[in-house]
Amino acid sequence: MKTLTERERSILFLLRRGKTYQTGKSIAILMGVSPRTIRNDVKALNRVLRNYGAEIVSKRGMGYKLEIRNNTKFSEIDNHVIDNNHCFTFPAEKSELLLLIIKKILINMLVNKKLYLQELADELFISLTTLKNNLPAVNNELKKFDLKVKIDRFNGIRIEGDEDKFRYCVSEYIFRGDNYASHQLFSIDEMMQIKDIITKILLNHNFILTDMTINNLIIHIQISIQRSLANMHLSYSNQAKKELRNTPEFTIAAEIINEIKNRLGKNIDSEIYYLTQHLVSSGKLIYHQMNSFELNKIHNIIMKVMEQIKIETSIDFTKDLELRNHLTVHLSAALNRLKYKMNIRNDLLNQIKYNYPLAFEIAVIASKKIKEITNFSINEDEIGYIAIHFGAALERKGINEKNNIKKILIVCGSGLATASLLREKLKGFFGNQINIIETTSLLKLNVEMINQADLILTTVPINNLKSKKIMLINPILNHKDLVEIKNILNGDKLNIHFDLKKIFIKELFIKGVEFKTKYEVLDYITNLMEKHGYIDYQTKQSIFEREKMASTELGDLVAIPHALENNMNKVAIAVCILKSSIIWDKEKVQVVFVLSIPKNQAESYEYVFRLLYKFLIDEFGASKLIYEFTYEDMIHNLENMSSR
Questions:
Q1: Among candidates 319, 303, 497, 457, which has minimal Cα distance to 398?
Q2: In whole angstroms, what is the distance from residue 162 CA to residue 533 CA?
Q3: For residue range 330-366, what is the model confidence (pLDDT) as tens digits?
Q4: How far apart are CA 285 and CA 329, in angstroms?
Q5: What is the distance between the alpha carbons of residues 392 and 383, in angstroms, rounded to a whole number?
């Protein structure tokens, strides 16, 4: 199959997500190209799609729409090209060439091959001058890893810095959500043997990891093997070695390394602390055996976090024992990751932000409190995983236990938190129509489990067991997924209890202004809101503080900034449509909604955000606001959507 470009993938994703025709102009605005370019991309896409039972049809005056004529055939491309974790992101300052340069250098270093400038330029089909002109941008990109490019005539072009930072950079740029890359670089047979070694030893120790974590572990072991062959090792202090040796994971790591030596003939004894570190920091599906001191320490952190959430949102989680237990398991690993300065990837981050906005905001509050207590800074990926736990807790609130009918089995490759969130989402939507009999990993799934269930919902493909009961679902269920599961035709009624004209303030609807940075935009809008009495100085400062903790950009040219702490009395929303797009953090933004939602109405945030998301993302509202919509047009569309 022809490899699709990132833009073609994004166009396909946008049309797959849309429910109606979308004009070439609206897609072009989102993609930052001309309508003519979109027409050419659609032609190229159709040459591929016709082999997979689908076609992008065009209708004069209406635009483009994806028609799927054979769901079975289309699922082949849907699973590989528009995968469940794919989320459209507008191309920002990072060019495709920049990423290719970094990848090429990393790959050559990983296999211990020297790479010279002219050779790299030839491989990329660019001139030596073009390559040299891009090197400052490469160095700028590598700054976040504390790495830099070094060039000399003997060793060629290399990336230098601490070994742990280099390995994390390799993981991010080469293997982030890319199984194809690992298959290209490493022997498939060797990877399967490593997986067999890991799973058997983990099961012997009743040390249950998610399928995703096991796959990440395989990649890091392969990286360890390659770096050992290049004689590149990590160094640990005596204190760190002592702490790692005293963990049960050290014994497991030793067994894995010994078995790799016996079966593969690869000696990675020097990597035992690195492997132990990964196991200690992994997201386990069962309680880690912590001593009472460590357990009490984490419980105290959790209770302080919940108290802070109650103060800032008026939502009380203190009586949710399941949430406390799940957070204990998660934080036992997360705090170790932070301690050893290990980063974790969260490929579900954008979906969590979109589908569980209130949970994500609660997780931001939680991370701020955790930093205050532990002095550990928590990044967006970690915040996203914490949000999953709070998302499940929010789903649990107010749900009564009833006699259920259909027996549902959940197979989840993303971990306990995601499985819990799926369970609560399903219970909340279907009520007494279902009974969740079990959640399990792919590793433990068997025929007996399938026979006991009426429906198996899985977030990972099940290739070894065939059944009509099995349904592949998105790890973060949205409403469309839920409707498809039970074929419910009632539609999604948003629980908005507001007069939209009173919360979307006309005097705060600004169009055609021009700024260079997000902080200039925020300063302009918040000053306007403060001037008219919709926010006070403290709320304004909190909007800036919240933005520094985690970006509010959503992709599709949209950002939705808001406050962490808000003591105002009324909900108010300002809308600012810029004359031209700016780089917000990583992506381009042209439409900015600034939300002021009082803490005693925190649960309204979920409803408002979902309404905005439907309008801006599902209905292509961002491009309509940029191109044609007035304030009255926006209100009219929002009112129609909230009543559907």
A1: 319
A2: 51
A3: 888 888 888 887 877 787 787 788 778 889 999 999 9
A4: 8
A5: 15
